[in-house]
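Lay summary. Proteins are chains of building blocks that fold into shapes, and those shapes determine what they do. In this project we predict the shape from the chain. Here is one chain we studied, written as its sequence of building blocks.
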Amino acid sequence: MVKGAVHPNGSNFRRVARLDVVSRLRRLEQTGLLDKRPRWLEWCERVPPLENHSLNLQAKTIRNPYPQMIRHLLKRYPDLRFQDCYVDGNDWSQGNDVYRADHPVMQFVARQLDIMRTRGADKREAFKLAEEWFRDRREKLEREQKVWMAMAANSNIEPMFATGHAYLQFERCRAEDAHLRKIRWQLRKMRMSSMAPSERAALFRKGDIVDYRVEADIGMGEVVQVNISEGSIVVRDERPPERDVMVVFKEPGSKEPGGSATHRSDATRSRSYKEDFGTVP
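And here is the predicted shape, written in a compact code that computers can read:
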């Protein structure tokens, strides 16, 4: 009994070559068994179909040795995954380790593969040789860095941050400074909004350099007149054409449009606040 896949008109164990459909029709025509020659037979004879007997219909598997070698290296030295982790092109997520050509992992694996191909060594022996080469290279780089540090010490050059903890403390101080600046600005704003126009005008003296704002007009100039009773100041704008601008302070809680003015030192603080937070409250 025949086992396996069975063809409709035969079995898998044919000892003769099986003819294609064109050859079969030609044989039938030669023996006179066909009443009429099919039209498609002439078309197939003019443009024969592509033969698939000599084609490799199975997909080829392309073997890449790098992923397996990288996984083995990172199991031995997991700290290499985080070297230059913030450089564009290095993906240090586990299971998707992709690095640039100048990364130590890729240099190590490339050296190991080169030893395997040129010296005919197996994977373990090539790993040991690449490990010795990599260690010698790192020691050489460390010696060069120590020489540079000694030269910098002789030149009285000190690093800005000697440790990562010092850099962390510096960033914490920057965040605290920005927070205190924000608090001071809010307190100054509350104090100015609660002051009467005459009190706000009394803060300025003739000759002060101020930044002013009157509705949509914004500029900088020198105070040439102070009217405490009216709660206003006159600022001479330095931009051409030179002109005098009257800044009238509004009453606390008033919804009417009014002007505002700040000393140049306060304006400098507001600009630094804008650089830190993107806007001035």
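What the prediction tells us: Residues 152 and 159 are 9 Å apart (CA to CA).
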